[in-house]
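Lab notebook, page 48
Experiment: co-folding of the full assembly
Goal: obtain a model of how the components sit together before planning crosslinking
Operator: M.T.
Materials (sequences as entered):
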Amino acid sequence: QVTLRESGPALVKPTQTLTLTCTFSGFSLSTRGMCVGWIRQPPGKALEWLARIDWDDDKYYNRSLKTRLTISKDTSKNQVVLTMTNVDPVDTATYYCARKAKVGAHFDFWGQGTLVTVSS
Amino acid sequence: QPVLTQPPSSSASPGESARLTCTLPSDINVGGYNIYWYQQKPGSPPRFLLYYYSDSDKGQGSGVPSRFSGSTDASANTGILHISGLQSEDEADYYCMIWARNTYVFGSGTKVTVL
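Observation: model returned without errors.
Model output:
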């Protein structure tokens, strides 16, 4: 059974660095073809992909946010970490982590999401 | 960053059909990419519905009813999600997505209302 759970601060101040952790089970990121991504959704708005990390440590980023994002993995802990620097109120959103399907590029299993508010 | 354009809303009565469109930018040919579709209900994460590349290369998400199907319109450079026999439980937001040039792009989303 595949599960993912996001964790991190609910409130962050502008200019701070946001660190989010995705803890997953039911698969291993050391298995060929496995990948985990981060997607966010501001309240009432559309989904926006942020980053993806693959089993072989390849990383992909949203080009508009690339300079502010870092994704990493700890295979032994079954965790993926996303950091976002210099946050702004426009970064207020629900942040989801999700597993890329074994076949295809889509995300087949998602966490429930964690709401992060950026406010002073 | 490319943009996938979806109409903001669509409505139909129970039992009717809905046709949701996802228009790709002119520099991305719909014929060269899988179009992925998600359903999202309030307070829940997106649920993968299906992908469509061609009639011979398509796939349904786990447990997704066959009344959800996909297609493309090459002349309009558009991906299409068809929902037949609309049910009240289909009321949700629907997003298209592509993986192109090592980037995921989501559409702007369509809110489907079942009248």
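Interpretation: Chain B is about 0% helix and 50% strand.
Next step: discuss with group before ordering constructs.
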